[in-house]
Design brief:
This protein has 309 residues and is mostly helical. It has 2 domains: 201 residues, no CATH class; 96 residues, no CATH class. Helices cover 63% and strands 3% of the residues. The protein contains 12 helices and 2 strands, in the order ααααααααααββαα. The chain has a two-stranded antiparallel sheet with strand order 1-2. α7 runs parallel beside α9. The radius of gyration is 31 Å and the shape is elongated.
C-alpha cells in the first residue's frame, strides 16, 4: 500500500509548477530567479508530504528564498500560493490514501495519517515557512484548517465513530481536540460545527463553542419578540370594568416597559418549563404564541368572574 502511495507522490512531485500570473511581468532575470525559488519550495513541500526529510542546509536555503520572495512583488502572493497550491496538492494525496480504506480500517489508517501529519509534516512546514509571519493566520493554523477541510471533512467520520467507540484510537480524539482549538478569523464555519458534533461523540461531557441545537428555543423566542415589535411602539389602552362603571372609573395604560415586562415573564415561563421537560426544544413560534394567548384569555375570564361576584 505504501509503495503505491509513494509512486503517486513521486508523480506528484514531477508535475510542472504552475506559473503564477505575477511572475509573468517584470524582467526575464527576475522571473527566472522567482520561478527557480518557487520550484525549490514546491519540491521541498512535496517531499515533506511524501515522508522524506530535508537535505543538509536545505531548510536554510528555503528560508532565504522565501525571505527574498517576500521582498519582491511576489511577497503578497506567498500565503495564497501556500494555501491554494501546496497544501491542496499535498493533502489531496493524503485524502486519496485514506479513501482507499473503508469502515474500521479507514478509521485506524486516518489515525496513523494524523500522527504523521501532526508530528512530522506540520513541524517541517512551519520551519520552511518560518519567514511567513505577521499574517491573519499562522502557517500552523492554515495547515490544520486545510487538514480539517480537505481530509477530515471528506471522510464519513460521523458514521464511523458511533460504531467504533470501544476501539477508538487515542490519536483520533487528539486530532479532534487539536482541530477544535483552531478558530477561523471570521467566526465558526459549517466545518467547525461538524467538528464539534464529532467531538461530542468522543468527549463527554463536552461544552460546545459554537451554537448548539439547544439554542433553538431561544431563536424562536427572539423571532417572537420581533413579531411583537410594532405593538411595542405605541401605548395600549385597556378599560377595566366596562360592564360596571362604578368599579371601572380608571383607565389602565400599558407602556412599552409594561409590554416588555410581560414578554420577559412569558419567556421565563416557557424557559422554566423547557428545563422541567414540559416544552420541547423544537416548539414552534405559533405554538408559543397560541399558548400565550390562551393564558391571556383564561386570565381575562377569571378576572371577569371575580368582578361579577
Amino acid at each position: 500500500m505504501m509503495t503505491s502511495g509513494h509512486r503517486r507522490v513521486h508523480s506528484l512531485s514531477s508535475m510542472p509548477l504552475p506559473l503564477l500570473p505575477q511572475l509573468q511581468s517584470g524582467s526575464s532575470t527576475l522571473q527566472d530567479s522567482s520561478v527557480s525559488d518557487m520550484n525549490s519550495i514546491y519540491s521541498a513541500v512535496i517531499k515533506v508530504f511524501q515522508g522524506e526529510g530535508l537535505q543538509m542546509n536545505e531548510l536554510y536555503c528555503l528560508n532565504e528564498s522565501i525571505r527574498w520572495l517576500l521582498k519582491t512583488e511576489m511577497g503578497s502572493f506567498i500565503k495564497e500560493y501556500f494555501q491554494n497550491q501546496l497544501l491542496n496538492k499535498g493533502l489531496r494525496f493524503i485524502l486519496e490514501e485514506v479513501l482507499l480504506y473503508e469502515g474500521e480500517s479507514q478509521l485506524f489508517f486516518l489515525a496513523d495519517v494524523w500522527l504523521r501529519f501532526f508530528s512530522e509534516i506540520l513541524p517541517t512546514l512551519q520551519a520552511i515557512f518560518y519567514p511567513l509571519q505577521g499574517q491573519e493566520l499562522t502557517v500552523r493554523q492554515m495547515s490544520l484548517l486545510a487538514f480539517r477541510d480537505l481530509v477530515l471533512m471528506r471522510v464519513p467520520l460521523e458514521d464511523l465513530l458511533p460504531t467504533n467507540l470501544s476501539l477508538l484510537p487515542t490519536s483520533i480524539r487528539q486530532m479532534l481536540l487539536v482541530l477544535q482549538g483552531v478558530h477561523e478569523p471570521r467566526g465558526p464555519s459549517v466545518e467547525y460545527y461538524r467538528l464539534e458534533k464529532m467531538l461530542e461523540m468522543v468527549v463527554s461531557p463536552y461544552l460546545w463553542n459554537s451554537k448548539h441545537k439547544s439554542n433553538a428555543l431561544h431563536e424562536h423566542l427572539h423571532a417572537l419578540k420581533c413579531h411583537f415589535i410594532y405593538s411595542l411602539l405605541s401605548p395600549l389602552m385597556e378599560q377595566d370594568g366596562e360592564m360596571y362603571p362604578d368599579r371601572g372609573a380608571s383607565l389602565r395604560r400599558h407602556t412599552v416597559a409594561n409590554s416588555l415586562s410581560a414578554m420577559s415573564n412569558m419567556q421565563l415561563s416557557v424557559t422554566d418549563r423547557r428545563h422541567c421537560g414540559l416544552v420541547e426544544s423544537y416548539e414552534t413560534i405559533d405554538e408559543i404564541r397560541e399558548e400565550h394567548n390562551r393564558d391571556i384569555s383564561l386570565k381575562a375570564v377569571t378576572h371577569f368572574e371575580s368582578q361579577s361576584c
